[in-house]
Design goal:
By secondary structure, this protein is an alpha+beta fold. Helices cover 21% and strands 26% of the residues. The protein has 2 domains: 33 residues; 145 residues, Umud Fragment, subunit A. The strands form 2 sheets. Strands 1, 2, 3, 4, 9, 10, 11 and 12 form an 8-stranded antiparallel β-sheet that branches. A 4-stranded antiparallel β-sheet has the order 7-6-5-8, with no helix packed on it. The longest helix is centred in the N-terminal third of the chain and has 33 residues. It is elongated, with a radius of gyration of 46 Å.
Length: 228
């Protein structure tokens, strides 16, 4: 009887509602004090390499821009402003010697300026020359001038001109000629060893063939100076 009146206690744990399985946490989603820096490095894109590449592109673009600009400017200068020539002979001795390098100005003639008497100029060789190279002589006769060589002097319009630049007086005679319009009469400073207007079949050089006025000898260095 006593055994029947005893309370029976349930020793089993009460049943609970079943919970659905949870997916495992990804390690990169867990940011603790120890791995905050590592997580930040993973999330933030790396900017310095991109900046370095962009900087190189800018530098390359700037260099190409400078080079192209320099080439264009040089071409324009050579075409319209200045140019250089190598003198192959001594026909202009002692003013200019064979092998000298000279600079000529081209732009004055593009702006309507005309050659003056005793200018040293560069011009295209005439048809009687086989070479296509330019010639370099001194302007003696201007359009309309009467030029004559006799007695060791050059006469322009009946008057002997002063020529401190020649190597020696001419020993030849050249009868008087009248220089046509827009043409010039040329002689070399080394009068007796220069093939110039006094020897050419056509002694006159058209203005259109003149390319520039020689102003400077820059090489070799001992000859550096203005051409007068």
């Amino acid at each position: 009887m006593d055994e029947e009146n005893k309370t029976i206690y349930n020793t089993e744990e009460p049943e609970t509602e079943a919970t659905p399985p949870q997916p495992p946490l990804m390690t990169e989603e867990i940011i603790t004090g120890d791995n905050v820096e590592e997580a930040e490095m993973t999330v933030i894109p790396q900017q310095p390499p991109q900046k370095e590449n962009r900087g190189f592109e800018y530098m390359l673009r700037d260099v190409l821009s400078v080079v192209i600009s320099a080439v264009v400017i040089a071409m324009l200068l050579k075409a319209f402003v200045v140019d250089s020539r190598i003198v192959p002979t001594n026909s202009m001795y002692p003013t200019i010697e064979g092998g000298d390098r000279v600079i000529m100005l081209k732009f004055p003639y593009y702006f309507g300026f005309l050659p003056e008497r005793q200018d040293v100029v560069v011009f295209a060789a005439g048809e009687e020359f086989d070479s296509e190279e330019d010639l370099l002589k001194r302007v003696i006769g201007l359009p309309g001038d009467i030029v004559e060589v006799k007695g060791g002097n050059v006469f322009v319009n009946g008057e002997a001109i002063t020529e401190p630049y020649i190597y020696e007086p001419p020993v030849y005679r050249f009868d008087a000629v009248t220089v046509p319009e827009e043409c010039y009469f040329m002689l070399g400073d080394n009068r007796n060893r220069s093939r110039d207007s006094h020897m050419w079949n056509n002694p006159f050089v058209p203005f259109s063939d003149i390319k520039g006025k020689v102003v400077l000898c820059y090489w070799p260095l001992p000859h550096l100076g203005l051409v007068k």
